């Protein structure tokens, strides 16, 4: 009988990450309520008040298109006056997305590009320069939302040839990716969204993880072989 294979510490960690979403994503980033946002923004409270006012018309079940455009216009002003305020970039992307469902985005390449650009700006501004340092809670909230939203768009593109074409035309660096590549990128975005506190992204990261899918298919194939061998042996005994 062959000796049992000894898994390295890293192998165990990888397998644990694949099959236990809580182990790898929930505690990998320290989020602090006591440290300020890395972007030193004067008059932060007044900016946040203006942002809340801009988003107030959206706080209803079905905001009108005019309300959405009004919010976008107010967020435009906030961003123009405070270009390092990450939350406004993220909220403008989220607000603009309210104008179109996924199918409509296929025909709105310019709008899709603006959404993706705003998400990228928000992520760039809020991402800590030191990956080992605690993340301010305000920045973590932006990162959780922006990465999850970008992951959702990439995942949707991996399921729709029309949206994939629109996304790739909006982000030229993606032009070599097929549907599997887009889904893998979506998984990375969901992983980051989960790391910064979005529970839905945490679960989606595991479901879309290509290595977990590979391991799952290997396990399934091995189980099918075991069942086939067992059935074959049973038939031989009966004969």
CATH class (first level) name of the domain at 42-208: Mainly Alpha
For this structure, the CATH topology of the domain at 42-208 is Serine Threonine Protein Phosphatase 5, Tetratricopeptide repeat
Secondary-structure arrangement, i.e. CATH architecture of the domain at 42-208: Alpha Horseshoe
Q: How large is the count of helical segments?
A: 12
**What series of H and E elements makes up the topology?**
HHEHHHHHEHHHHH
**CATH-level-4 superfamily name of the domain at 42-208:** Tetratricopeptide repeat domain
Average pLDDT works out at 80
Largest sheet: 2 strands, parallel
N/C terminus separation: 29 Å
Extract low-pLDDT stretches. 1-8, 10-27, 214-220
**Strand order of the main beta sheet, please?**
1-2
- In percent terms, what proportion of residues is strand? under 5%
Instruction: Evaluate the radius of gyration.
Output: 23 Å
Quaternary organization: single chain
């Amino acid at each position: 009988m062959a000796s049992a294979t000894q898994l390295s510490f890293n192998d165990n960690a990888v397998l644990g990450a694949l099959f236990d979403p809580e182990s790898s994503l929930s505690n990998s980033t320290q989020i602090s309520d006591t440290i300020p946002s890395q972007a030193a923004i004067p008059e932060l409270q007044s900016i946040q008040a203006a942002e809340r006012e801009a988003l107030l018309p959206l706080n209803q079940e079905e905001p009108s298109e005019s309300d959405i455009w009004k919010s976008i216009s107010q967020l435009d002003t906030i961003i123009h006056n405070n270009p390092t305020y990450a939350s406004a970039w993220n909220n403008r992307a989220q607000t603009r997305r309210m104008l179109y469902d996924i199918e409509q985005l296929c025909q709105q390449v310019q709008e899709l590009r603006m959404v993706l650009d705003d998400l990228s700006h928000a992520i760039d501004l809020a991402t800590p320069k030191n990956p080992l340092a605690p993340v301010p809670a305000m920045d973590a909230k932006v990162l959780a939302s922006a990465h999850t939203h970008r992951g959702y768009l990439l995942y949707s593109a991996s399921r729709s040839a029309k949206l994939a074409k629109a996304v790739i035309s909006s982000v030229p660096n993606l032009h070599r990716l097929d549907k599997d590549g887009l889904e893998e990128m979506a998984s990375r975005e969901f992983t980051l969204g989960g790391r910064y506190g979005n529970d839905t992204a945490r679960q989606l990261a595991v479901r879309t993880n290509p290595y977990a899918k590979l391991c799952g298919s290997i396990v399934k194939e091995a189980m099918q072989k075991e069942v086939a061998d067992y059935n074959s042996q049973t038939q031989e005994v009966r004969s």
